[in-house]
Design brief:
The complex is a heterodimer of chains A (75) and B (613). Helix content of chain A is 15%, strand content 29%. Chain A has 2 helices and 5 strands. Chain A has a 5-stranded mixed β-sheet, with no helix packed on it. Helix content of chain B is 42%, strand content 13%. The longest helix of chain B is centred in the middle third of the chain and has 22 residues. Classes of the chains: A alpha+beta (75), B alpha+beta (613).
Chain lengths: 75, 613
């Protein structure tokens, strides 16, 4: 399935990209995707699917846009 | 008394006199410093109803017990006065070498009274106070003023100054210090201008009194390095606050087109990655090891220091997606000494009002060249349009009429910071109950709200989170006077701050003691408000009405069809009041004021408006 992954802030220097299309196996979870793109498991982050927060064990769907961001605190 | 110098410097510009006053340990422990000192002093010394731009207003620079001591991010000062923008207590903080120098000169607070008979620079060196003519730089920008001062005294002195915005009484004028540093969003720079005070230069040479200097040196210096190391690990300062822009764009929280839209396909052109790629320099405040000033060049070659707020409000909010153009607007704000946030909102409101046909004009969203011209006119109060823009969005809306107040993006007269809360109820509350108007400094709960709660909810947990953050951000960091960034952005533990405080003062306070001081200060700001506006109502704590308007809901994207709901927001507001111990108008009850040791201040307020038991 096709998924667009957006990485935000300094996390892009961990993943090496800020936006990229991925072809993932069906039933890939959010947590599995985060490991796949190289973000350390201990790194606090907020993950959204099409602009809405998702939990790590949720399954990604074909056509989703997944964004991974550090926990910002509003300056 | 350790931790505090115990001294206030009071300067009168009318009589060109000054005196050194002392304060008691009881005052120090009740109000601690910074915002606490300022709010108490202005409450006691200003009569309600005075003209904020008249001779009776007072301009204050207030410091805290760890100001000037080498520890993480202590190079900050609070500037305060009765606000010409909002009509009651207003303040702000800014990074400046003046913080350390004022403390080393022997003062915890500077109070400036009266009006000079000519443009003046105030020079303070320990016990010496001098008044110098400043006609040479009156009419010039803050960068030229800085150069003039550096040529006289070198770059090591502390400087606070204003640009043409402050001189011409633009109600959104700020106080400026170093490159890119500004504070006092509610027009505190205009108060300096009304006093013909172009600049304050400070040089201090004496040690700051501390209970345990060796312990403080060991803890402070080590922690400065550790904060820097943590920042290297997280990479936060590579993009600094500009990194948050794509997050806001992703979740429908970015201000676009006067907050009409919450995201934009071109926002990536001004995001943190692109700002960092365009970086030519990095600026920071004194005693900072995670410097946040991403500095780029505009098309004219000026260096312009960016953060998220000015990028969002002078960029996407005006539908400008070109970094050098947006940087030009930011540079001009810095040079004229105008608040970037309010200026962005004023310009976007003007374009929106023209768009809606409530006023005739030639400014359109996306027109960066005209925006620069309007900004210059606002700073100089040039012509009818320049004068209108210099008044702030609420006064502009009252002039325009036709319901335009609904989309003047302000609360209590202070323009909203760069978070579009069309469908973020808890953050809308944070703006609504921010005590000086819609400042993001007091509480920011967007990540919590989206990740840890149901976004649609208006439950008491959101009010509790706003209060928790107000106590830390608007309380602790504003009265101890230190930058909140090590904690909020890089997770530096909060319990370090009582440790620094105790090493400085010899006291044994914990965070609970700090929260009580914060609550006291918030209640005092509310009493200021009540005294100036005896008809205060809970509707004063509502955010801009356009966020409640179904016709304003996004038509596509992550929050399509969503908007705030007024009755539910009112319920959330009541949760906040109940948890705070405020009455239905949002004013602390007598019992709350008593619990905070504010009986005397309550008695003063009761002469102007009834307090609730």
């Amino acid at each position: 399935m096709k998924v667009l992954v957006k990485v935000i802030g300094p996390l892009i220097y961990k993943t090496g990209f800020s936006e990229k299309d991925f072809d993932l196996p069906a039933k890939t979870t959010v947590a599995e995707l985060v490991v796949l793109i190289g973000i350390p498991a201990e790194r606090p982050r907020i993950i959204t699917r099409n602009g809405k927060a998702v939990l790590p064990d949720e399954t990604i769907e074909d056509g989703d846009k997944i964004a991974v961001s550090p926990i910002y605190s509003g300056g | 008394m350790n931790g505090w110098t115990g001294n206030i410097l009071r300067v009168n510009l009318s009589s060109k006199t000054h005196k050194k006053e002392t304060f008691t340990e009881e005052f120090a422990q009740k109000w601690v410093g910074g915002r606490g000192f300022a709010v108490k002093t202005l409450y006691d010394e200003l009569k309600p109803g005075i003209d904020p731009l008249g001779p009776e207003n007072k301009f204050i620079v207030a410091l805290g017990p760890i100001s000037g001591i080498p520890a993480p991010n202590t190079g900050k000062a609070v500037v305060a006065a009765k606000s010409p923008l909002t009509g009651f207590y207003g303040d702000g903080n800014l990074g400046t070498r003046a913080a350390e120098h004022l403390r080393k000169a022997g003062y915890d607070m500077l109070i400036v009274e009266g009006v000079a008979d000519r443009p003046t620079m105030l020079y303070i060196e320990d016990d010496k106070v001098e008044f110098f003519p400043a006609e040479e730089v009156w009419g010039k920008g803050t960068f030229a003023c800085n150069e003039w001062i550096y040529a006289k005294y070198g770059k090591g002195v502390g400087v606070l100054n204003i640009g043409q915005g402050g001189e011409n009484l633009n109600r959104c004028a700020v106080v400026r210090s170093l490159e890119g540093r500004a504070g006092g969003r509610p027009g505190i720079g205009a108060v300096m201008g009304s006093k013909k005070l172009k600049a304050i230069v400070v040089k201090g040479t004496r040690p700051i009194p501390q209970a345990d200097p060796a312990g403080m040196k060991a803890a402070g210096s080590g922690d400065l390095k550790r904060v820097g190391q943590i920042d290297k690990e997280t990479g936060w300062s590579i993009q600094s606050t500009t990194g948050v822009l794509p997050f806001c764009n992703e979740v429908g929280g970015l201000p676009v087109r006067n907050f009409r839209k919450t995201h934009h396909p071109l926002a990536w052109q001004v995001d943190g990655e692109r700002c960092n790629n365009a970086r030519v320099a990095t600026y920071g405040c004194p005693t900072c090891t995670m410097r946040c000033g991403v500095t780029v060049r505009d098309h004219e070659g000026h260096e312009s220091e960016l953060d998220y707020e000015n990028v969002a409000l002078l960029g996407p909010n005006l539908e400008i997606f070109d970094i050098p153009q947006m940087a030009s607007l930011n540079y001009l704000c810095d040079d004229y000494g105008l608040d970037t946030m309010s200026t962005g909102c004023n310009l976007s409101f003007y374009a929106d009002a023209i768009d809606h046909g409530v006023v005739a004009g030639d400014f359109k969203f996306g027109d960066a060249e005209r925006a620069k011209e309007l900004l210059r006119m606002a700073a100089h109060r040039e012509g009818k349009v320049g004068n209108l823009l210099a008044e702030g969005s609420l006064r502009m809306a009252r002039e325009f009429g036709h319901g335009s107040e609904a989309y003047a993006m302000q609360v209590k007269g202070l323009e909203v910071a760069a978070y579009n809360c069309k469908f973020i109820p808890g953050q809308a509350l944070a703006f609504g109950v921010a005590p000086i108007g819609a400042h993001h400094r007091e509480a920011w709960i967007i990540t919590f709200e989206i990740r840890n709660t149901t976004r649609e909810s208006y439950g008491p947990e959101k009010a509790a989170k706003v209060i928790e953050l107000q106590r830390i951000r608007g309380g602790l960091f504003e009265f101890i006077v230190s930058c909140r960034f090590p904690w909020i952005e890089n997770g530096w533990p909060l319990d370090h701050y009582p440790k620094y405080f105790n090493l400085a003062t010899g006291l044994n306070w914990g965070l609970d003691d700090m929260w009580k001081v914060g609550d006291r200060i918030y209640s005092m700001i509310k009493l200021h408000y009540l005294r100036e506006f005896p008809q205060a109502s809970r509707e004063d704590d509502y955010p801009p009405r356009v966020w409640f308007d179904p016709a304003n809901a996004d038509t596509e994207g992550p929050i399509a069809g969503k908007h705030l709901e007024l009755d539910k927001y009112d319920g959330l507001l009541q949760h906040y009041y109940d948890q705070r111990g405020y009455d239905r108008r949002g004013i602390p009850t007598k019992a709350t004021l008593h619990s905070l040791g504010l009986d005397a201040e309550a008695a003063v307020a009761a002469k102007y408006a009834k307090l609730t038991d």
